[in-house]
Structure formats: C-alpha cells, structure tokens
C-alpha cells in the first residue's frame, strides 16, 4: 500500500483570495491526517501566492504525520528549510509566471552543495523530475534520497497509444529509482480517474495529490454549507 501525501496549497489559495483567515490550512492538514493522510505537502513559493511562512511554522508544530516542503532550489529556501526542518524537502522548478509547477526540475551539478546542506540538517531530499532515465541516474549521483516522478504529462493525455507509452515510461523510471535505492514518489495532476493505472504498477511508494482532492471537497461539503447558512437566515 502506498503512502498518500495531501497537498493543501489550494486551501491557502482560497484564503489568499481575500487575504483573510479562512479557510485555515492548518485545519485542512488536521482533517487530512484524521482521515488517513500519511503526509502533508506544501509548496512555499517565492512569491508566497498561497502558503505563507506562518503556515509552515504552524504546520511543523501541529502535524502528526510527515511534512513535505516543496521549494525552489534557492539559498533563501534552504535557510527556511534548515530552520523549519520538514521531514522531506522536494526540490521543484519555479517560475513566477506559471499557474502551477510546469515540467520537472532540470538537475545540474550546481545543486550538489545545496542538496548536501539540506541533508546535513537531517532532512530527506527528493527531486521532482520527468520520468527520464538519465535524470534519475543524475539524481542518484547528487545524493537524493527520493525521486518524485512528474505525472503532469501523463495526466493530460487522452490518446490511448500515448497513454500506454507514458505509463511504460513511468514504470521504467520507477524501476530505476527503486533499483538505485531511492524512494519512488509520484505526483501532479493525479485525480480520481487517472491514479488507478499508476497504482496498478505496484511500484510507486508515495503519491502527492492536491487539486483534485480539494476540488472534490468543495462539492462534498457544499450541500451542508448551504444548509447551515439557510438555517441562520431563516
Ligand atoms: N507534487 C509536486 C512536486 C507538485 O509541485 C504538486 C503541485 O503543487 C503536486 C505534487 C500536487 O499536484 P496536484 O495539485 O495537481 O495534485
């Protein structure tokens, strides 16, 4: 059985739309944990468009499972990670103009000192990359503990032939990650329709899923929310 990390960035996105105090991501994390989440995942973006520094501090103090911090490979973020000490840091590419993380991180040898610094703080390092065998070999050389396979391309496909070929690419990537002694993680764009094919591969150890879960929660909670307000204005 694989672990499920819940990405709660989207709860913070709704809060930031009003710059107010609700919905509270810390509460979202607690509910996720009470219902089986094995990990809480957040992306502290350089522009702080959703998760704030204060969220990260409070999550570190309150969550009872594991905290996975997605972040850009920058000195500012490394300093934050060293102080917060999440269980895992997942290095992701980041562009200010993008709506969400587009494409995997391109690994370069310049990342080596930064990865070392994070590991020396006792934090597991994961890298978010495309299912590319050369990149995976390079991740091993850089000393990363886990590789998160970017499933965004897979999630956007609807042509059967391309889908089969991408699933095969993900499987080959997962096998190499495992053989190299790293943890096999997957995430991005996964939803209630497309996750099963990956689960069937029986090799991915952890999934990080956010948008589809928060989207579904809007509808599973909407009826009760309307009903409660109607009682008040009645
Ligand atoms: N994993 C990583 C590294 C991500 O950047 C994201 C998006 O923030 C996710 C998983 C979750 O993606 P989604 O919200 O599409 O489920």
Give a quick precis of the structure.
By secondary structure, the protein is an alpha/beta fold.
Question: What key phrases describe this protein's structure?
Answer:
binds pyridoxine-5'-phosphate; TIM Barrel; 8 strands; 234 residues; alpha/beta; eight-stranded parallel beta barrel
Outline the fold blueprint.
Elements: E1 3-7, H1 9-18, H2 25-34, E2 39-43, H3 53-62, E3 67-71, H4 75-84, E4 88-91, H5 111-120, E5 124-129, H6 133-141, E6 146-150, H7 152-156, H8 160-179, E7 183-187, H9 195-199, E8 206-209, H10 211-233
Parallel strand pairs: 1-2, 1-8, 2-3, 3-4, 4-5, 5-6, 6-7, 7-8
Helix pairs in contact: 2-3, 6-8
Structure description:
This protein has 234 residues and is an alpha/beta fold. It has a single domain, classed as TIM Barrel, CATH 3.20.20. Helices cover 48% and strands 17% of the residues. The chain has helices spanning 9-18, 25-34, 53-62, 75-84, 111-120, 133-141, 152-156, 160-179, 195-199, 211-233, and strands at 3-7, 39-43, 67-71, 88-91, 124-129, 146-150, 183-187, 206-209. The chain has an eight-stranded parallel beta barrel with strand order 1-2-3-4-5-6-7-8, surrounded by six helices. Helix 6 packs parallel to helix 8. The termini are far apart. The site of pyridoxine-5'-phosphate has 19 residues, from strand 8 and helix 10.
């Amino acid at each position: 059985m694989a672990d499920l990390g819940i990405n709660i960035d989207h709860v913070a996105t709704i809060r930031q739309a009003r710059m107010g105090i609700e919905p509270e991501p810390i509460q979202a994390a607690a509910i996720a944990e009470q219902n089986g989440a094995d990990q809480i995942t957040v992306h502290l973006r350089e522009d702080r468009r959703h998760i704030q520094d204060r969220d990260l501090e409070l999550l570190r103090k309150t969550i009872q499972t594991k905290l996975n911090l997605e972040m850009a490979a920058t000195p500012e973020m490394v300093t934050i990670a060293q102080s917060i000490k999440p269980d895992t840091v997942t290095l992701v590419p980041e562009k200010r103009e993008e709506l969400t993380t587009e494409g995997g991180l391109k690994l370069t040898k310049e990342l080596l000192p930064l990865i070392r610094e994070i590991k020396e703080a006792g934090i597991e390092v994961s890298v978010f990359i495309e299912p590319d065998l050369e990149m995976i070999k390079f991740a091993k050389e850089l000393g990363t503990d886990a590789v998160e396979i970017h499933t965004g391309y897979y999630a956007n496909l609807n042509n059967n032939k391309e889908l089969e070929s991408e699933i095969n690419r993900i499987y080959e990537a997962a096998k190499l990650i495992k053989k190299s002694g790293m943890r096999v993680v997957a995430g991005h764009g996964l939803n209630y329709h497309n996750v099963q094919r990956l689960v069937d591969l029986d090799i991915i150890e952890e999934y990080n899923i956010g948008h589809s879960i928060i989207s579904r929660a809007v509808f599973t909670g909407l009826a009760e929310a309307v009903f409660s307000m109607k009682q008040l204005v009645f």
